[in-house]
Design a protein that fits this description.
The chain has 317 residues and is mostly beta strands. It is 0% helix and 50% strand. The protein contains no helices and 28 strands. It has strands at residues 3-5, 9-15, 22-28, 37-44, 51-59, 63-68, 75-80, 84-89, 100-103, 109-114, 121-126, 130-135, 143-146, 152-157, 164-169, 174-178, 186-188, 195-200, 207-212, 217-221, 230-232, 239-244, 251-256, 261-265, 272-276, 283-288, 295-300, 304-309. The strands form seven sheets. The protein has a four-stranded antiparallel β-sheet with strand order 1-28-27-26, with no helix packed on it. A hairpin with a 4-residue loop joins strand 19 and strand 20 (217-221). The protein is globular and about 50 Å long.
Amino acid sequence: MPVFKAPFNGYSVKFSPFYESRLAVATAQNFGILGNGRIHVLELSPGGPGVTESIAFDTADAVYDVCWSESHDSVLIAAIGDGSVKIYDTSLPPPSNPIRSFQEHAREVHSVDYNPTRRDSFLTASWDDTVKLWAMDRPASIRTFKEHAYCVYQAVWNPKHGDVFASASGDCTLRIWDVREPGSTMIIPGHDLEILSCDWNKYDDCVLATSSVDKTIKVWDVRSYRAPLAVLNGHGYAVRKVKFSPHRRSLIASCSYDMSVCLWDYMVEDALVGRYDHHTEFAVGIDMSVLVEGLMASTGWDELVYVWQQGMDPRAS
């Protein structure tokens, strides 16, 4: 299976929604604490196990997350440690990039998510406790969402409703928002420790998952959120990222500071259906391809990016 060695520590990996062989990786020097960052755009070799870098963009600060535009196949957006949000066009050479840079967040930008239904706007979540809404054609953010009492680690659009998103915070809450409303529409005190990640079910727009420092993943139904639908135990340390499958309703992927990537089916009793121990440092980035069923990617602080088919050994050549 393809493996790419980056010069810096991996933070995030995202498959292109347009090209099944393309993915972007966000990396940061010195574990994101101090130093530069780099965005890699990778191409999987057709029919072979190889992966090559097609272009890379250097940044003066850590890159914590990256996402592809849903409307332009060459455009990606990066969340930067200096509080900026930068837009890159991979069809242009590095000296012509970034094509846009927004400087509004007061602290590190930790996540970025492009609206999959409207395809004209995106969200950023920051350690300044806020979420911001942006449009590609606007010179400044459209709105700032200020309710969380601590770092917002992730904000994710609902896959069916273009005005609805969820945010996960170190204040131990998950909040649901509608951009047409003045404040959050729902507050779920999901965990006793920091919530690091969240994602929506792609087949049921009322179901979402959270992951936490408490080592668990919880699945919630917003129609009845007093108790979770499921609690998934199996990671040994904080669960850094959680991601619902774009192809299977009840399948969830996660990665953790225990260095593992896990697959879960939250609707069966023995929910842990796969475990991959290929990383040798914290596993912090995970994605599942929309275009190729079962194709997964992960990255971590071991500076490696793995791409593999579900059920296969990520390290097999």
